Amino acid sequence: MLDVSSHDVLLVGGGGAGLRAAIAISEADAGLSVAIVSKVYPMRSHTVSAEGGAAGVIHPDDSLEEHIYDTISGGDWLCDQDAVETFVKEAPEELLRLEHWGCPWSRQEDGHIAVRPFGGMKKTRTWFAADKTGFHLLHTLFQTSLKFSAITRYDEYFVTRLLINDGCVQGVVAIELATGRIQAIIAKAVILCTGGCGRVFRFTTNASIKTGDGMALAYRAGAPLKDMEFVQYHPTGLPFTGILITEAARAEGGYLLNKEGYRYLQDYNLGTPQPKPVLRSMELGPRDRLSQAFVKEQEQGRTSEGLYGPVVYLDLRHLGEKVINARLPFVRELCLKYENIDPVKELIPVRPVVHYMMGGVHTDLNGATPLKGLYAAGEVACVSINGANRLGSNSLPELLVFGARAGRAAAAFAAGQQAPNRRQILAQALDEETRLHDQFLQKSGGRERISTLRDEMQTTMEKGAGIYRRGDLLTHTAGKLIELQERLGSVTLYDRSHVFNTELVSALELSFMLDVAECITHAALQRTESRGAHQRTDFPARNDERFLAHSLVYRQTDGRPRTEYLPVTITRWPPGERVYGR
Amino acid sequence: MADRITLKVTRYDPGRDHEPGFQTYEVPLRKDWVVLDALNYVKDKVDGSLSFRWSCRMGICGSCGMMVNGEPKLTCATFVSEYMPGPVSVEPLKHFPILRDLIVDISDFLEKLTKVKPWLIREEERRVVDGEYLQTPEQADTFRQFSMCINCLLCYAACPVYGLDPLFTGPAAIALAQRYNTDSRDQGTNERLDILSQHDGIWGCTFVGDCTRVCPKHVDPAGAIQQYKLTAAKEWIKSLLMPWGGR
Ligand SMILES: Cc1cc2nc3c(=O)[nH]c(=O)nc-3n(C[C@H](O)[C@H](O)[C@H](O)COP(=O)(O)OP(=O)(O)OC[C@H]3O[C@@H](n4cnc5c(N)ncnc54)[C@H](O)[C@@H]3O)c2cc1C
Ligand code: SF4
Ligand code: FES
């Protein structure tokens, strides 16, 4: 039996972006009813694992202009410059607002906020809360959200589809995991805040819940996905678990060494080794360049062969136990607890791991997508401020700035809307209920295992759409993904229970991921140039004439992707060369 | 090292089973595998219907708490090899209603958390343009420990008082109340005190300290409860001496 409820604004996702948006709506108009629908309890969302910090200009010797320039040049001129300007201007006030809500930002002796250096940022402007910045940010937002009685939470509800009426998004269908009940949740506006999609790849820092659900939901509903070919690798993840060793470890003075103990980054046009860390040089160069250097070292046989493939080493030993304990306690804890390595005494084996999705649902400065009534914010969205490569510590402030903006815009939109036509909407919800039963819960006879398909997807993505890409390999990956889409039809669930059917959730997530993987591959194949995180060995140069443009991937009626291009907004900063370490 | 180990895992599907039972699985024993890796091995390769919560696999999201050999543990931070030669029992967190297999109903905690008002309370809110509230590192240190709670609820599973009296606010929620009470920016202690004193479960806590012992984040909820009791006792005496409202 289908259950129905309705609200003014509905958020899919209760991570940093979702919670910030929910609070913004309640503050904008306390009379609006807000719903947060989340597949995990909000404080479990992936924002919780961000370590390093959040960028926002506060130092007198820093300026908005410089943060803007770092972001645009770091993004290899694919950022929309009006969006970056808005973002940089609003980031400091958002971070301050969080302080007013109790966020325990690290402080200077005099009681003012402390900031630290961060990769790709020329000035010191990264706010941090020890090395648990995302954790504190998320819990502060979650706890603050508890004071607003207009916010209704649907904890552990899994959204399977957007409801559309008359070209307007008017709610979602969700499964209440605890009971298996399928519910239509109607709303005048919907904001997607579902985070990224790192799980499409094998080696990733992303939690198991980061499966690109919101991207696929929007794509299936007809909204375009923007710049999906830009997938950021983080140069230093632990090989088995994908656990990230934060950039802060290098900002505090850590070295990257190849198997000969040599600081190999000096061979890749990233500056010369200095005993103390230098901003934007060597180990503090941009992430994409560091990850690419790893592949080159590997090709030259200068990486070590670990249990899970090739690795290089992060060396913190010269910092000494005192500095490590004081400045990087979490890094030490992670190494000890999860890989049984003590960075005080030993080298840490690391490798590049997929970390962040620059691309996402196409939105404007207010989070609005081309579909009426549909908004997006956070990692699921592409505004775009990250261009071809996100700078570390820009995404936490991004989800605050654009979470708040999307919240306010959706609130204003919802206030002017009539209540949705229930009958039309319910027909679609019933359709979805039938699909879930037919395709998964009552089907028998298939032979495919979810984990097998997932492994094959991750392998083919790593091969074709990894750090370096090539036309023929991408084409092969695209073909393989179509095959996997077909085989998804023969997946059989062992689990037929209604209560907490996590296998059903895995199947639905896999199907979302396959759509997202197809979009990434298609956009990567079409972009015959190299820019930021997208590196084509068959097209090694940047090509501004053709590709100073965002890709927009649309779903065609046959289910396959089609790519169009949209010019980048350039206001005051004409494209230049990306130069580091000089 | 042996190359396999046996897991004894709670299974329960309310639609089918009258009560929870056990199922055993043999899994590879690997040096770098935590209990959660072993469960995922079962789910991916052996029995897709086994249900449990997890997400970050790095001890920060708080999803994966279970009883491992009778002790509340984060399964992503507990190596299987610690339990050699096995078998290892894996059960849902104690003191919470079981929903399915290893998943428990934690809605009671969410309600309690909301009740203690875990947000910054100010008589007058500062405007953002006026900048941050000043707070020295020493002032921040007073509440830092309590702010580290990941809501994993291992402490509730260890708490004998919560086991007997489900109305007890419990260790993590009290620690989070203290987190704000001891924050130099906050002015809401009295409001929270009223709420915490409404039910007298807290006086039942005899400072056994099991909550603090099992806490993976060194939050020291037992310490928070002691601190809170002290403040509450002082306020109570004050209210006897000054019944017209000494606050
Ligand atoms: C290890 C790590 C470290 C990082 N460190 C930093 C850093 O130092 N600085 C920085 O700026 N950035 C950092 N990042 C990036 C940043 O943390 C993320 O981009 C950001 O937190 C994403 O937040 P979000 O709110 O968009 O999504 P998330 O926090 O991922 O939240 C997604 C929400 O959507 C919900 N959801 C998803 N799908 C569904 C569905 N189908 N139905 C219902 N609900 C759904 C989930 O339950 C969840 O609540 C880091 C990322 C990682 C992986
Ligand atoms: S106090 Fe410790 S054990 Fe209790 S919920 Fe918080 S982190 Fe977990
Ligand atoms: S999986 Fe996140 S705490 Fe264990």
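Chain A has 15 helices and 22 strands.
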